[in-house]
User: Fold Maleylpyruvate isomerase family mycothiol-dependent enzyme from Kitasatospora paranensis.
Amino acid sequence: MTDNQTVQAYSDAWTQSIESICELLAPLPTDSWNRPTECPGWSVRDVVSHIIAVESELLGDPRPIHSLPRDLRHITSEFARYVELPVDKRRCHTPVEITSELEYTVIRRSRALRNAKQEPADLVRWPAGPLSHDMPYAELLRNRAFDVWVHEQDLRRALHVPGNPDSPAALVTRDYLVQGLPKVVAKLAGAPAGSTVVFDVTGPVEFLRTVRVDETGRGSVDGSVGLAPDVQFHLDWETYHRLACGRIHPETAARSIRVDGDTELAARVLAHFALTP
Assistant:
């Protein structure tokens, strides 16, 4: 695909996922909005509020003026505080107010994406408080497709309404997470030079990737499999993305993973598998 086709694919993936969220929420009874999700401290309402907040900020809307309570135990960093503020501000909003704001925000963002003049490589601001930085426009759209799909799955698990495990945004998520595997294996887990670690993922999104650590300690990932890797993980797609997005602890995920090879290295990889802040 050309760069412009890639941008359109990311935009389409975001659209499909966020419209699925709107459809999921439309018939939701009031008491379901308070169900906890796998995002620490966040209910269904909070996850939706977060999606609204990010898309609104990308539209250039001002952040709300609000003071956070001091007893929110899941706030452990300045980034978490930044993300929490617009979520907490909306905790007094009714489901009707939240869904109306979401639908209006989606309309505005969709229009903005259609009318965007940025080229794929143009640098744009990623609003993330202390983690804010400039990135290529195409990368920002990829990140939004990834983030919205992950939160769609958060909502679906909380509401027991599975769906879209292999949607276009799910494939964006696969590529995003696979791109982070060399960092997980070589840098965070400290796999020694010459190591190979294989990930054999099954389910709606099926893939096989190998991380190779070269003599300098740098990791790379490809789709081939050599003989006798140091570690081979066998797991399903849902376990993979929940673990990689920090939705489940490695100890919990280990029950759904078969490991062949060096168990000590495998444990280090699992302990550092989460790529989201």
About this structure: The domain at 3-164 is CATH 1.20.120.450 (Four Helix Bundle (Hemerythrin (Met), subunit A)). Residues 4 and 120 are 6 Å apart (CA to CA). The radius of gyration is 20 Å.
